[in-house]
Please model this.
Amino acid sequence: MKSKLELWGGLECTIARIGDDFRDQSSETGHGDRIEDLDRIAVLGIRTLRYPVLWESVSPEHPDRRDFSWHDERLQRLRQLEIRAIAGLCHHGSGPRYTNMLDPAWPELLARHASHVARRYPHLDLYTPVNEPLTTARFSGLYGHWYPHGTSYEAFLRILVNECKATVLAMRAIRKIRPDAQLVQTDDMGKTFSTPLLAYQAAHENQRRFLSFDLLCGMVDRHHPWWRILLDHGVPQADLELLLEADAAPDIIGINHYLTSERYLDERLTRYPEHHWGGNGRHDYADAEAVRMPLPPEDIGPAARLREVWERYRRPMAVTEAHHGCTRDDQLRWLMQVWRDVEVLREEGADIRAVTIWSLFGAVDWNSLLTSRNGFYEPGPFDVRAPEPRRTALAHAAEALARTGDYDHPVLDRAGWWKRDIRFYKPPSRKSNACRLVGSPRQLMITGATGTLGRAFSRLSDFRGLDHMLLSRGDMNIADRESVSVALARHRPWAVINTAGYVRVAEAENDPETCFRENAAGAEILAKACAELGIPLVTFSSDLVFDGTLGRPYLESDATNPTTVYGASKAEAERRILAAHDKALVIRTSAFFGPWDRYNFVWSILNTLSRGDAVKASPDIVSPTYVPDLVNTSLDLLIDGGTGIWHMANTGQTSWRDLAAAAAERAGFDPDLVEEAAEGEPLITALSTERGTLMPSLESALDRFFAESETEWSEDAMKLAAE
Model:
C-alpha cells in the first residue's frame, strides 16, 4: 500500500558570507531567540523538519572549539515533540572565517564538523551536509554574489566538486557513528529554453543542472560529457575518482523548484527589460523567466521537472522547498500546485515522499539574494513581524495538508499569475480564461463602486486573479437591511470588503444624521448580515477617531476620542461592527494618496506647484497611506483570517507640510515653495501598531508613487496649467 504523501517543514537558516559580513537568517527572522517556534511547528502537524546544525554557528573560530548549547536545547525539544530533524550542516555558506569553498581542506573540515554533530546527537538519522551545492557554487563561484565571490567557470566547478566531496566525507564520518544515517541531498532544479540560435547554450545549461546529483551518484565517469570539462577547469582527477565510488549517493533526492528556476534565452534583447541582458562571450542575449514565455504548459513547472529527475535517477524523492514570495493568494496557489503535481506523479509511479513547506518563519532580503540589507521580508506560514509569530493562510494550509492531505480556499478557484495573461512581457491580443480552475469561481463582494478605495480594491483584485463584484449604492444600500439581505443572497460572496460610506469630513459637521446613518448604522447592518451568514467582513475606519493630543502615534488599544462628527461616526461604527461580528476586520488608516485618483493631498500639491503657485500645509503629524499598499496588505490579511482592529499606514510619520515638500522634491519642484501653515501646536494623529508592521515604508511608497504615476500626473498638471 502506498504511503501517504507527507508535509515536511523547513526554516530559512542560511548563514552566508558576503565580503567580511555574515548574514544569519535564523537571527534575522527571530527564530534564533524563540525555542517556542518548535511548538508552533508541531501544532501544524509537521513531523519532519529541515533544521540547522550549521558549521558556522557551532565552530565559528576554530574547528575544535565548539558550542552546541543552542542546538542541545532545540534538538531535545524536537525529540520531545516527536519531530524528526533533517540536520543541515552548511546552508548556502562558505564555512567559518578560517576556510572557504575553494580551500582544498574544506571537505575534510566539514567532515570533522559532521563527525562532531553525529557524536553529539546520535539519534539524528537524516542529514543534508551541503544544501544546494550546484546553486551555491553558481552564486559563489560563477556570479560572485557570495563568498569567495568567484566569477569564473574554474571557481564554479572547483567549488561544486569540493561541496560534493565534502558531502561524501561527511556521510562517511556520520556513518561511522550512525551506520543507517541517510543523505537527503537538495538542489534547485530548473530547465533552460531558448531560441534556435541559442540552443547550444541551453543544451549546455541543461546538462549542467544535473551535475550535483550526477557527481554524488557516481555517474560522472570518463564517458560523461562533463568529465573533460571538469578536468580542463582545474578539478583534480582524484576528486572525481573519489566521487565514482558513489557511497554517498542520495537516499532521498530533494528538489527545490521556484518560478525563476526555468529560464529562456533570447538574442532579441530589446524584447526584455535590461536587467535580463547578458551573454556568454559568443552571443549577447536576454536570460528571462521561462514562465513569461508562451511555451507549452506541459513543458514547464514542477511536474515536468520532478518527472525528469525521477526518470533520470529512480531514487526516492521529496520536494524540499515549496515557497513563493508573492501575495498570499499566489503563495497558496503555488503550494497547492506543487502538492497536486506531486500527487499526479505519485499516481504515475514516482516515489516522491513529501512536500516541504518553506520557509516556516519567512525570509529576509532574498529578493536581492542577501546582497543588500533592505529588511525585505517575505512571510511564510508564520509572519514574524507581529509581537509573536502570527499564523498566515499558509499555516492553515499546512495544517490541513499535514492532517488530511487536502486544502481549500476560494482564492484557489483561479490559477496563479504564472498561468494568467499578466505573466507575459507582451500581453496576448485575446484574453484567456484558462486561469479559471472551476466553472464559477467564488467571489469577493466590494462595496463603494464610486470611491477611491472601492475602485482600487477592484483594480488590484483583477490583477491578483480574485473574482469579485464591485457594488454601487444602487446595487446594495448598506443602510437598508432588505437591500443588504437581497444582495448577499444573490451574490453569495466568500467575503465582503466594505469601502462605502460618508467621506466628506468638513460637510459632516452640518449633516451629522446622514454621516452617522451611512458610516455607523449602515456598517452595523452589513456586519450583522455577514455574521449571520458566516461571511468574513473587512471595513475601514480612520485616524480621526483620535483627537491628536496624546503626544505620540496611536496604537490599536488606545481609547478613541474623536473631535469631529466624521471621527465620531467612525468610532461608533467600530464599536457596532465588532459587537455584531466577532470575526470582522476593522482597518484604521489615514491620509490616502495613490496613482489612480486625482482627489488626494499629494496630487493637489503637485498640480498647484505645476502652476508655479506656492502652497501652505499643516504641521499636524499624520501617517500617509499609499493606496496600493493598503489594498494589497488588507487582502493578504483577509485571506489570513485576520480579525479585530488593525492600524495600517505606511511606516514613517510626517507632517502634512513635510509630506508636501517630499512630494515636491521628488517631482522636481522647489520644496521651499511649500510653506508651513501657522496653526498652533501640531496635533499627532499618526498611527502605529502593536499587532504587526505589515506595510512598507513611506519613503518606498513615495518612490513607487512617482514611478507608477509620473506620466499621469504630469499630463494632468499641464492641462491644468493651460486652463
Notes: The CA atoms of residues 13 and 120 lie 20 Å apart. The chain has two domains: 6-191+203-260+297-419, 442-722. The two ends are 79 Å apart (CA to CA). The chain is about 40% helix and 15% strand.
